[in-house]
Design goal:
The complex is a heterodimer. Chain A is 0% helix and 50% strand. Chain A is an all-beta fold. Chain B is mainly β. The N and C termini of chain B lie far apart (37 Å). Classes of the chains: A mainly beta, B mainly beta.
């Protein structure tokens, strides 16, 4: 089954404790992206990647890091989480030529205390 | 800056009624997508419209892209409880593959 998977689905942590949210897709997609969803603000892009070893900032990259060492994986790293990063996070992927038609993972709900 | 405004934000209707959701912007988009999101899940793509004035139908759902490619609408005929969810529009600027999302319309269809 074609899918985007994220882990963990739920995470409660404390300020300053480094964490990683994993994202994996099995569709051989070149394009992958991370979004955060907050009430009233819709989905905002954090980082995206057009291919292995190619990453770029989205609209709200501050406080986040990503890496793309393999085509299928695109982890999101929070080196020092803060309460304003409490949010619902989605990973998405898309394949050429329809990079605008994105497949989303099930989401990771993160709470930073 | 919110480039895409969706209206209404919330809509509660009775099964069988018709409804229209709007997605408006002052910016031109090279394509526009509509997604539906259910609780606990990620958004799922419903349709992509590309050409100004384009109309696409998906069973009881009709999507229209404005002539100037700045706005779009989603019309649902004879809504059913299974249509309940958060509807999101997303515009792609300058064929950049970068999507700008609206804040969504939360639809509740009561049996």
């Amino acid at each position: 089954e074609a899918q985007v998977t994220q882990n963990p689905r739920y995470l409660i942590t404390v300020t300053g404790k480094k964490l990683t949210v994993t994202c994996s897709q099995n569709m051989n997609h070149e394009y992958m992206s991370w979004y955060r969803q907050d009430p009233g603000l819709g989905l905002r892009q954090i980082y995206y990647s057009m291919n292995v070893e190619v990453t770029d900032k989205g609209d709200v990259p501050e406080g986040y890091k990503v890496s793309r060492k393999e085509k299928r994986n695109f982890p999101l790293i929070l080196e020092s989480p803060s309460p304003n990063q409490t949010s619902l996070y989605f990973c998405a992927s898309a394949g050429w030529p329809n990079y605008n038609e994105q497949f989303f993972g099930p989401g990771t709900r993160l709470t930073v205390l | 800056t919110q480039l895409l405004e969706q209206s209404p934000q919330f809509l509660s209707i009775q099964e069988g009624e018709n409804l229209t959701v709007y997605c408006n912007s002052s910016s031109v988009f090279s394509s526009l997508q509509w997604y539906r999101q259910e609780p606990g899940e990620g958004p799922v793509l419903l349709v992509t419209v590309v050409t100004g004035g384009e109309v696409k139908k998906l069973k009881r759902l009709t999507f229209q892209f404005g002539d100037a490619r700045k706005d779009s609408s989603l019309h649902i005929t004879a809504a059913q409880p299974g249509d309940t969810g958060l509807y999101l529009c997303a515009g792609e600027k300058d064929s950049s593959y970068k999507l700008i999302f609206g804040s969504g319309t939360r639809l509740l269809v009561r049996p």
